[in-house]
Design goal:
about 300 residues; alpha+beta; Actin, Chain A, domain 4; 6-stranded mixed β-sheet; 3-stranded antiparallel β-sheet; globular
């Protein structure tokens, strides 16, 4: 929702009944010449208000971000947006945009097929999809954590959302995993088990803060598995020490670890918990504490 324009409060035009009543009062109290002058002032003021309102509407429209890629058909309108910090890195921007365009084409094909099979579900309009790439943190001026947020409206009971992450190595200009920071990351191994234990503890605390402690159950947490590809989308958490990371943030979309109404969750695992499993590179980049306010970030 766009913020209200400050210009709109400068002049409020009265209703037509009020104008009629006001005009009768003015004409009975003042001369025709005086009333005419007041009318001219009102018209001038109304013109200013309309001009400002038009300017405000134009400004709001101009402020709408322009998608970096878009697909628009009778079945779907899907957009991809890259954050400004991503655009500043040509290699990272190209990588994200290529992935985003593939995502657009895939969903456009699915929407067209769905419309052909069940046209009745498109009576209220086509699907609306949106993907945004934003940088979450930069560590050691090398490792860039990117959040990839998806919005999907297929005209069902409610829109859906998803979150995933990218860890980008600026030195190599490619995507990597967190494997280089740990001595072992085997499925069910000690590192993964330590992460899962810390994740569940963090999620449980967060659920209690939200008044949702009753859903802090094994049933909801069963999707958090001690496997690198099943443990959750991960980013390097920022730190109070410049250039370092205070630990790992794991990002979960609605439905992943709780009912839809609870929304997204971010579980924080401090680096000290993982200290026994760090490689030399891990020991180099981890340190410090989680900054105040980071827990409020998506």
């Amino acid at each position: 929702m766009r913020p209200a324009c400050k210009h709109r409060q400068l002049f409020a035009a009265p209703s037509l009944p009020a104008l009629r009543s006001g005009s009768q009062t003015i004409l009975s109290k003042y001369s025709d010449a005086h009333a005419g002058a007041l009318t001219l002032k009102f018209i001038a003021g109304l013109s200013v208000a309309l001009a400002l309102s038009a300017t405000c509407a134009f400004s709001a429209h101009a402020a709408d971000p322009k998608p970096d890629a878009i697909v628009k058909t009778k079945s779907i309108e899907a957009r991809v947006f890259l954050g400004d910090r991503i655009k500043a890195d040509a290699a990272l921007a190209a990588d994200c945009l290529a992935e985003g365009k593939t995502w657009l084409d895939k969903n456009a094909a699915e929407a067209a097929a769905a419309r052909k099979a069940d046209p009745q579900f498109f009576k209220e309009g086509g699907w609306e999809f949106e993907r945004k790439y934003e940088i979450r943190s930069v560590v050691a001026d090398r490792y860039v954590s990117v959040l990839r947020n998806d919005y999907m409206n297929t005209r069902g009971a409610h829109p859906n959302s998803d979150v995933n992450t990218i860890l980008w190595d600026k030195a190599a200009n490619k995507r990597i995993s967190i494997r280089p920071f740990f001595t072992e990351t085997a499925d069910g191994g000690p590192t993964m088990k330590a992460m899962v234990k810390a994740i569940i503890a963090s999620l449980t605390d967060e659920k209690k803060k939200r008044g949702a402690g009753e859903t802090a159950t094994d049933e909801w947490f069963k999707s958090v598995e001690p496997r690198l590809l099943k443990i959750g989308a991960v980013t390097l958490a920022p730190s109070t020490e410049a250039g370092r990371s205070s630990g790992l943030n794991f990002h979960y979309p609605p439905y992943a670890v709780g009912p839809y109404a609870e929304g997204e969750y971010v579980a924080f695992v401090p680096w000290e918990t993982l200290k026994p499993y760090l490689t030399s590179e891990g020991a180099r980049i981890f340190g410090g504490a989680r900054p105040k306010g980071d827990a409020d970030e998506p």
